[in-house]
Amino acid sequence: MRNEARQKDNHMNQNPITVVIGTDMETDVGSFTPYYEGLTKGTPLLLDLFEETDVTTTFLFTGDSVKAHPEVARECLARGHEVGSHSLQHETVGDPLFDLPGTKPILEHEVLPRLRLNTELIEQATGVRPVSFRCPRLWGSTAVVRALDELGYVADLTYPMYFHREQFAPYFSSLEDWTQRGDSSVLQIPNFADMVMESNDPGLERDRDQWPLFRTKGGRYMLERSMAFKQFCDGKQIDTYLCFYIHPWEFWPMEKSYNFGEATVIPESFITENVGPGAIDELRILIEGLKAEGAVFMQAKDVPALVRERQSQRVGV
């Protein structure tokens, strides 16, 4: 028992925080609009913040966004960040977790060709083939992982921890069930969720999810939840990885409703609450707080090598 306690204490003392920030490059307001105000005006604010705080991140582009604004993708690369992909048109490529009006999943046989085209569009625009991916709305599937494996991707930032609640650290996905460990070449990097709180959302437990709390409740709140998650990981003796998802439109003023002639889109208030440049200040608080705790920021494409290295070190102990 003493030996087990000593091993647990050693893990807690030697468990650094690895952070991956994935910015989903899509149309404004969660793709409920066709506009790119956030992409063109919010992205520069993010790039300046990342330079100011000296962190490296991953920007995940839809094929449509990189066609419309290839210069934004090239600027992300030029500023030292990774450019990955985020589906062709922000469509539902995986298995939906809840209903959205007018949103239907594409057919399984459409997944590979659409992700291949998304990949090609990004490579054509930037000269660099993307190897990191995230499904829109964190709606993943085994079909998606199989397509990513075939296309040479190495990282998938999709797994919604708040919903599946089984995997709390990166793992190589099974080609039979993407939510389980397997022998594919695709590393699944789970999106951080609050696994300490008591959920008041039976079944879905979406209130555990991180988004958009950094701007609705603030950077300090998110830092507290992040450190609580580290304690959660320490207790399970697993490495602490914090994968965040944000969008450039969150950092530029958005309208509360949009009229399209035949219909008006009125997002729930939390979606547009506190969007604008003030969100940059809250994200800065979170980043600086994590850095003060010794966190290391990485691009998604580099995490698989780190995971393999740590796994080999454990085998050799």
* CATH architecture grouping: Alpha-Beta Barrel
Give the CATH superfamily. Answer: Glycoside hydrolase/deacetylase
The shape is globular
**How many DSSP E strands?**
11
CATH topology term: TIM Barrel
Low-confidence stretches: 1-13
Specify the number of helices. Answer: 13
Distance between the termini: 19 Å
Major beta sheet, specifics? 5 strands, parallel
CATH class: Alpha Beta
Structural class: alpha/beta
Quote the average pLDDT. Answer: 94
DSSP strand (E) fraction? 5-15%
Into which percent range does the helicity of residues fall?
Answer: 40-55%
Topology order in helix (H) and strand (E) letters: HEHHEHHEHEHEHEEHHEEEHHEH
Domains, number = 1
Q: What is the radius of gyration computed over CA atoms, rounded to a whole number of angstroms?
A: 19 Å
Can you walk me through this structure?
This is Polysaccharide deacetylase family protein. Pfam families: Polysacc_deac_1. It comes from Tessaracoccus lubricantis. The chain has helices spanning 2-13, 28-31, 37-53, 63-68, 70-78, 108-126, 142-151, 161-164, 213-216, 219-236, 269-272, 278-292, 303-316, and strands spanning 17-25, 58-61, 82-85, 132-133, 155-156, 171-172, 187-188, 240-246, 258-259, 264-265, 296-297. Helix content is 43%, strand content 12%. The longest helix is centred in the middle third of the chain and has 19 residues, at 108-126. The chain has 317 residues and is of the alpha/beta class. It has a single domain, classed as Glycoside hydrolase/deacetylase (TIM Barrel, Alpha-Beta Barrel), CATH 3.20.20.370. Helix 6 (108-126) crosses helix 7 and helix 10 packs parallel to helix 12 (278-292).
